[in-house]
Design brief:
Blueprint: E1 2-12, E2 14-15, E3 18-25, E4 31-34, E5 37-39, H1 46-58, E6 60-77, E7 86-102, E8 114-119, H2 130-141
Length: 162
């Protein structure tokens, strides 16, 4: 079985009751909302990764204002066709960021095709990846250890009250 470790860094940028998100096609092609961010290049510091990725995906430059936490997910993917079975570990660092420059634009030829500010009150209704919920909980709760309790509901209904 092939083993794969992917380390990535993502930004949670919230201002005026809205969060900055990017849109990416899911494996079945359905668009879904994701946090701006992505995989680290070999030898790259995650702090630099998140700033580079946000600029690539949204056009904005950000200042990293804090480390919200770490999300670690382990998945076993069965063999599919010619693809070998994979033991995949995703380690995602979640930073808080503040937009300091640039202009909103869409990524061309990358992993996302659109970026937009979404109302926090509308996030529950968006087709989104699980990491958006994890990030918003970390942003709201700010656990001192940067870790969410196992089994806790990802995004409480109170999100609509923001």
């Amino acid at each position: 079985m092939r083993r794969n470790l992917r380390v990535a860094a993502y930004a949670v940028c919230v201002r005026d009751g809205r969060i900055l998100l990017a849109r990416s096609p899911s494996p079945d092609g359905t668009p879904e909302w994701v946090l701006p961010g992505g995989g680290m290049e070999h030898g790259e510091d995650p702090y630099d990764t998140v700033r580079r990725e946000v600029t690539e995906e949204t056009g904005y430059r950000i200042e990293v204002t804090g480390l919200l936490g770490v999300d670690s997910r382990h998945h076993l993917f069965a063999r599919r066709g010619l693809r070998r079975a994979t033991d995949h570990h995703a380690l995602r660092l979640l930073y808080e960021g503040e937009v300091t420059g640039g202009e909103l634009r869409y990524e061309v030829g990358g992993s996302t095709d659109f970026a937009a500010w979404q109302d926090l009150s509308a996030v529950l209704d968006l087709n989104r990846v699980r990491l958006v919920d994890v990030a918003l909980r970390l942003w709201r709760e700010r656990p001192t250890d940067g870790h969410l309790a196992a089994g806790a509901r990802l995004l409480p209904r109170e999100m609509n009250e923001e």
